[in-house]
């Protein structure tokens, strides 16, 4: 498909869309971004306004708000190659992710706020993250959603069921404890490993079930 061959022509292994929205657990999204960069993936990134508030609350990162400045900051912070991280703003409708002809084969919303979950389930497309997810659904491309809320309301559960039936995969931010994680980072990696596996990467963050468990 052209969006993947474009990425390979530019020297990247693949191209993936990543949206970080304003649920708690932005560490999952930031770690996934770091892993994708290390895997030579070109990442088309969107960070919602609420996610920027959560990043400032939950991490020490001083993330600039403007897309160009955010792109420069993250590229330097994660030692990404030139052009590897592309950041798009909330109304940048000419971005590749806004159309089936330009969007990558996979999109991850990590973490996914219940607000964005609702907008995706209803096809609202009121900002670029919602539009990109709408494109992924209409084109039958891979869409991974990482919601975090507790408890879930019937509305949240209905949206997750509806989106699952449409082909999206819900990967809740619910790390397991059977590997006896010794750090927050290990718990974050538990979820990121599952996302990388879903995306088809050989992940090395965690042993697979049945291999070296305890
Ligand atoms: C510190 C903080 C933590 C939040 N945690 C959650 C959460 O865990 N789950 C959630 O769905 N919303 C959470 N919210 C609320 C969302 O950020 C809010 O509903 C926002 O409108 C979502 O916008 P977005 O989907 O465009 O990112 C949190 C907000 C803040 C500031």
From TrEMBL:
Instruction: Give the UniProt keywords, A-Z.
Output: Flavoprotein, FMN, Prenyltransferase, Transferase
Which residue numbers delimit the Flavoprotein domain?
Answer: 15-198
User: Where do the annotations place dimethylallyl phosphate binding?
Assistant: 178, 194
Indicate whether Oxidoreductase appears among the record's keywords. no
- Positions annotated to bind FMN: 22-24, 48, 113-116, 148
Which molecular function term from Gene Ontology is one that the record holds? flavin prenyltransferase activity
Catalyses: dimethylallyl phosphate + FMNH2 = prenylated FMNH2 + phosphate
Question: Would you say which domain of life the source belongs to?
Answer: Bacteria
> Does this UniProt record's set of keywords contain Flavoprotein?
yes
Q: What is its EC number?
A: 2.5.1.129
Protein function: Flavin prenyltransferase that catalyzes the synthesis of the prenylated FMN cofactor (prenyl-FMN) for 4-hydroxy-3-polyprenylbenzoic acid decarboxylase UbiD. The prenyltransferase is metal-independent and links a dimethylallyl moiety from dimethylallyl monophosphate (DMAP) to the flavin N5 and C6 atoms of FMN.
Q: Which family does it belong to?
A: Belongs to the UbiX/PAD1 family.
- What's the protein here called? Flavin prenyltransferase UbiX
Name the gene behind this protein. Answer: ubiX
């Amino acid at each position: 498909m052209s969006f993947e061959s474009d990425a390979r022509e530019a020297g990247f292994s693949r191209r993936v869309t990543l949206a970080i929205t304003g649920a708690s657990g932005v560490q999952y999204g930031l770690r996934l971004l770091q892993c994708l960069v290390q895997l030579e993936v070109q990442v088309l990134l969107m960070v919602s306004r609420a996610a920027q508030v959560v990043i400032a609350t939950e991490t020490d990162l001083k993330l600039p708000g403007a897309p160009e400045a955010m792109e420069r900051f993250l590229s330097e912070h994660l030692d990404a190659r030139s052009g590897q991280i592309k950041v798009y703003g909330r109304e940048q409708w000419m971005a590749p992710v806004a159309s089936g002809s330009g969007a990558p084969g996979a999109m991850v919303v990590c973490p996914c706020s219940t607000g964005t979950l609702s907008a995706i389930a209803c096809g609202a497309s009121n900002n670029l993250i919602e539009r990109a997810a709408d494109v992924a659904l209409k084109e039958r491309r891979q869409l991974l959603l990482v919601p975090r809320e507790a408890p879930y309301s019937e509305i949240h559960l209905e949206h997750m069921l509806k989106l699952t039936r449409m082909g999206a995969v819900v990967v809740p931010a619910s790390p397991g404890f059977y590997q006896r994680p010794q750090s927050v980072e290990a718990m974050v990696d538990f979820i990121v490993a599952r996302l990388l596996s879903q995306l088809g990467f050989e992940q090395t963050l965690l042993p697979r079930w049945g291999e070296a468990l305890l």
